[in-house]
Design a protein that fits this description.
Chain A: Keywords: Signal. Chain A: It holds the Pfam family Peptidase_M16. Chain A: Residues 38-179 form the Peptidase M16 N-terminal domain. Chain A: Residues 1-19 form the signal peptide. Chain A: It comes from Pseudosulfitobacter koreensis. The complex is a heterodimer of chains A (439) and B (449). Chain A is an alpha+beta fold. Chain A contains 16 helices and 13 strands. Chain A folds into two domains: 24-226, Cytochrome Bc1 Complex, Chain A, domain 1 (2-Layer Sandwich), CATH 3.30.830.10; 247-376 and 387-427, Metalloenzyme, LuxS/M16 peptidase-like (Cytochrome Bc1 Complex, Chain A, domain 1), CATH 3.30.830. Chain A has helices at 2-14, 65-72, 82-92, 116-128, 134-151, 155-168, 181-186, 189-199, 215-226, 274-285, 292-300, 331-348, 352-365, 373-385, 392-401, 405-415; strands at residues 24-27, 33-38, 44-52, 76-77, 80-81, 95-100, 104-112, 205-211, 247-252, 257-265, 307-313, 318-327, 422-427. By secondary structure, chain B is an alpha+beta fold. Chain B has 15 helices and eleven strands. In chain B, the strands form two sheets. Chain B has a six-stranded mixed sheet, with helices on both faces. Chain B has a five-stranded mixed sheet with strand order 7-11-8-10-9, with helices on both faces. The radius of gyration of chain B is 23 Å and the shape is globular. The chains are: A alpha+beta (439), B alpha+beta (449). The interface between A and B is large, with 71 and 66 residues.
Chain lengths: 439, 449
């Protein structure tokens, strides 16, 4: 009996810290919904806004328009030019950042309680009355073009672009949302206004707020900030058809270390098996030192500084990706080891110990994400975009715990496709060439 | 140099790092010292039941012996191998099995190890961290394999990155006699020769309680931290032979230097300028505070002086910035960068930068701009309370770089007390051609039209 008691004690002690986050849904008088966590202990508020669709809503032939438009939101609004806007923001000690990606345009703001109304007014002006002043357009356009030139000499970017083109073809995911030198050079102010109208609309808006603010204060603030947005934006993108043939693509680039990006079709986050796939990935290449890839490629053989795999469940396609970098004369071996591990996991699944450790890690690491107002606001917006229930945080770890050996084995068998992996290698890899996977 | 992720203090190059060292009275900091000389800092944040446990050693790449560059960082990797009580990899596996994350990083002046985990696991973290301070057990195989890993790390961070290679050359030209001129990760030819003895001799001297700072941040009680620290770390004897931390010093710098680095992988050429500059010193942080604000005034964003002159009044640059990192044991640098716009040559960009510096020295400070910067510094103290790990990092880096708890806590007031005269005096003293290196990162000659 003492033994059993000791076992139970151990289990209780090993329970991870629970993320204790109390979310309130606030609906403004004007009908805008936000998720709120009140945190009055520090006199500021973090706010995260996201507009679904993001840069994938670029009009045909206007690749890069949403990205350039987003870059201009902080470059002047209402009667302020870029410098007047920046001075106003500094004078409030607030910070706003505007970011865009394939699936969303994101706005992250933080502002002090003492001048909240003024900060919200400034944020509103940037979102609803951006100036798109021709001088600012040219200045930011040059910054974007500078970045595009750098991308052409960056092995990681070269690999990502080649892989995306291969996997997604004509879907917006198949090209970089930053556009090309030609497309960005040709964008007009009208294109930016059109991109703004397409993306910033209420029918695709998600809001998360954490900080020193009550539901009663937040409601009117939401209407003040976002009430004048148009109701409807451009139609959202179609699902992408993911087509990844097994094989190798070598992109010749003179540099000592080859960078390889590899992948295959993945799994949507809404799939009932997503947690099983997450556990599987944690074991295979989830980024910790304990993963099989890290252990085999780095710890045992010293072939790389870092190797990892990751599920990429985007809104309109899902892939399962990985990344490794090794000296040109060692990358072939690194890739061979990765393929072996992929095949081994596909046929054998994981061990009981690995399953247990992965679950402990995933459940224990989850509460560590809630470390500040802004991270919590971001997590809440992500939950809303996935359609998760408001009490999800409290139940998420139970879903991880519920994953069984059979689940992982079945998902490994169904998901992992060692012969369907495609490796894009940028560098001068010895012993590798474009074509089918080596025997 | 982190063990896993690409976060680095090495390449300040194009990143607009606002390295605000901030502090304030109500950030719930308790400090004390153990009998064996180990310093302890506790930062309380009870909003979530998690803790960050960090152990900082006052030993970084600038403390390495000649010929063994990179050994501080190599040893950081090796600390995840076996001890008398744990197998290789068991440390991280145990942290992970407790739902935590762990990693480590090396800089010029310090090496730090940290874990972030549920607050009730603090004792276990201390037990394991204390164990590897004393009981590291390295094999020749560890050395062979892990040396390959750090070489691949250098490949990834530096050899594959012309900006990083350029930064190394700039630094090497800046420091005539100080170890800061050698890269943290090491020169490749010396990394290849690092051996067991290099690692162990560094470990034996520097990995000692009287050379360490423990920082614990999160949902903890200072008294409880003290008891745990005494149990796990307090039993380790102090190292009696710990040397005083003296590095070879810089002589007066009397000649402007120029570095031209060419690489076919350069897509966007730029001009970089660094000046040798004083660092924050214990009890004397005033000039460093003035330089901190000077960097904001000159190159802290859209409203800065260089942006005004080079990006708005003219289109010389697509980007400009100024950087100063005062947290350093010995002399640091004040850096400028200008990325020229289309059809602007590096010479034109450099000339415009120098002309802007001249006009700045003549015009002096915009009082409203200074007030806005100070306001933001005050607001940073409010925002910083949302980031206990940031507070922990600030104390750890300061206390391993020659500063005291009092210096860290006085810093916000020192910043607020900076006057226009202080800033102009610091600018006049630091922005001297004789103390500078001017660098061009550019394409090979044949590629330049």
């Amino acid at each position: 009996m003492r033994y059993i008691l000791a076992m139970m004690m151990a289990v209780v002690l090993a329970l991870p810290a629970r993320a204790d986050v109390e979310i309130t849904e606030v609906v403004s008088p004007g009908g805008i919904t936000a998720w709120l966590v009140e945190e009055p202990s520090i006199p500021f508020t973090a706010m995260e806004l996201r507009f679904r669709g993001g840069a994938s809503l670029d009009a045909p032939g206007k690749r890069g328009a949403t990205n350039l438009m987003t870059g201009l939101l902080e470059e002047g609004a209402a009667d302020m030019d870029a410098r007047a806007f920046a001075r106003a923001l500094e004078g409030l000690a607030a910070s706003f950042s505007y970011d865009v990606g394939d699936d969303a345009l994101a706005v992250s703001a933080r502002f002090l309680t003492e001048n909240r109304d003024a900060a919200v007014e400034l944020l509103r002006a940037s979102l609803l009355e951006p100036a798109f002043d021709p001088e600012a357009v040219e200045r930011v356009r040059q910054q974007v073009l500078t970045g595009l030139l750098s991308d052409e000499k960056n092995p990681e970017e070269l690999a990502a672009r080649a892989f995306d083109k291969l996997a997604y073809g004509d879907h917006p995911y198949g090209t970089s949302y930053t556009g090309t030198v030609d497309s960005v050079s040709a964008l007009t102010r009208d294109d930016l206004v059109a991109a703004h109208d397409a993306v910033l609309a209420k029918d695709r808006l998600y809001v998360g707020v954490v900080g020193d603010i009550t539901p009663e204060e937040l409601g009117p603030l939401l209407d003040e900030l976002l009430g004048d947005l148009p109701e409807v934006g451009a139609p959202l993108p179609e699902m992408a058809e993911v087509d990844i043939p097994g094989g190798v693509t070598v992109i010749d680039f003179e540099t000592p270390q080859s960078v390889a990006l590899f992948g295959q079709p993945g799994m949507a986050q809404k799939d009932p098996d997503f947690f099983a796939a997450t556990v599987l990935n944690q074991v295979l290449g989830g980024g910790s030192f304990e993963s099989r890839l890290m252990n085999e490629v780095r710890e045992k053989r010293g072939l790389t500084y870092g190797v990892y795999s990751y599920l990429v469940p985007r809104d309109y396609a899902a892939t399962y990706m990985g990344r490794v970098a090794s000296a040109n004369d060692r990358i072939e071996e690194a890739i061979a080891v990765i393929r072996d591990e992929w095949a081994k996991a596909a046929s054998e699944g994981v061990t009981e110990d690995e399953l247990r450790d992965a679950k402990t890690y995933l459940t224990g690491a989850y509460p560590l994400r809630f470390d500040g107002n802004a991270p919590i606001a971001r997590i809440m917006v992500g939950m809303q975009m996935l359609g998760l229930p408001i009490d999800y945080i409290a139940t998420r770890n139970e879903m991880v715990e519920a994953v069984t050996m059979d689940d992982v084995k079945r998902v490994a068998d169904e998901l992992l496709d060692p012969d369907g992996l495609h490796f894009v290698v940028v560098g001068q890899p010895e012993g590798l060439e474009t074509g089918p996977l080596p025997e | 140099m982190t063990r896993l992720r690409a976060v680095t203090a090495l390449i300040a190059a194009l990143l607009p790092l606002a390295a605000w060292a901030q502090s304030e009275a109500n950030e719930n900091v308790t400090t004390f010292e153990l009998d064996n000389g180990m310093q302890v800092v506790v930062v309380e944040d009870h909003r979530a039941p998690v803790v960050t446990h960090m152990l900082w050693y006052k030993a970084g790449s600038a403390d390495e012996p000649k010929g063994a560059s990179g050994v501080a960082h190599f040893l950081e990797h090796l600390l995840f191998k076996a001890t008398d009580n744990m197998d290789a990899g068991e440390f991280s596996a145990t942290v992970a099995a407790n739902g935590g994350r762990d990693n480590a990083f090396t800089s010029y002046d310090y090496t730090a190890y940290y874990q972030r985990v549920a607050a009730d696991r603090l004792g276990l973290m201390m037990k394991m961290e204390a164990d590897r301070m004393e009981n590291l057990l390295l094999t020749p195989e560890n050395i062979e394999t892990e040396r390959d890993v750090i070489i691949e790390e250098r490949n990834q961070r530096t050899e594959n990155n012309p900006q990083a290679l350029f930064g190394e050359q700039m630094n090497a030209a800046q420091y005539l006699n100080h170890r800061y001129g050698v890269p943290i990760i090491g020169w490749m030819h010396e990394m290849r020769t690092l051996d067991l003895e290099d690692a162990l001799s560094f470990y034996d001297i520097y990995y000692s309680p009287n050379n360490a700072v423990l920082v614990v941040a999160g949902d903890v009680d200072p008294e409880e931290v003290r008891e745990l620290a005494e149990t796990h770390y307090g039993v380790i004897p102090a190292e009696p032979d710990l040397p005083e931390r003296l590095r070879t010093e810089e002589p007066p710098q009397t000649a402007a230097r120029r570095v031209i680095f060419r690489d076919a992988r350069v897509a966007q050429p730029y001009v970089s300028r660094s000046y040798i500059a004083p660092e924050r010193d214990a009890g004397a942080q005033e000039e460093a505070a003035a330089l901190t604000i000077l960097a904001e005034i000159l190159g802290g964003g859209t409203t800065s002086y260089l942006a005004e002159k080079l990006q708005f009044d003219t289109r010389v640059a697509v980007y400009s910035g100024a950087f100063y990192r005062g947290n350093s044991l010995d002399a640091t640098t004040f850096d400028l960068v200008v990325v020229p716009g289309p059809d602007v040559s590096l010479q034109e960009a450099e000339d415009a930068m120098d002309a802007a510096l001249v006009s700045f020295m003549e015009e002096g400070i915009d009082a409203e701009q200074l007030e806005r910067i100070k306001l933001q510094l005050r607001a940073q103290q409010i925002y910083a309370r949302d980031d206990a790990d940031g507070v922990a990092n600030r104390y750890g880096a300061a206390l391993t770089s020659g500063l005291t708890v009092e210096d860290v806590q006085a810093w916000p007031d020192v910043l607020q007390a900076v006057t226009e005269e202080d800033i102009m005096a610091a600018a006049a003293s630091v922005l001297r051609p004789e103390g500078s290196v001017t660098g061009w990162l550019t394409k090979p000659v044949e590629a330049v039209q």
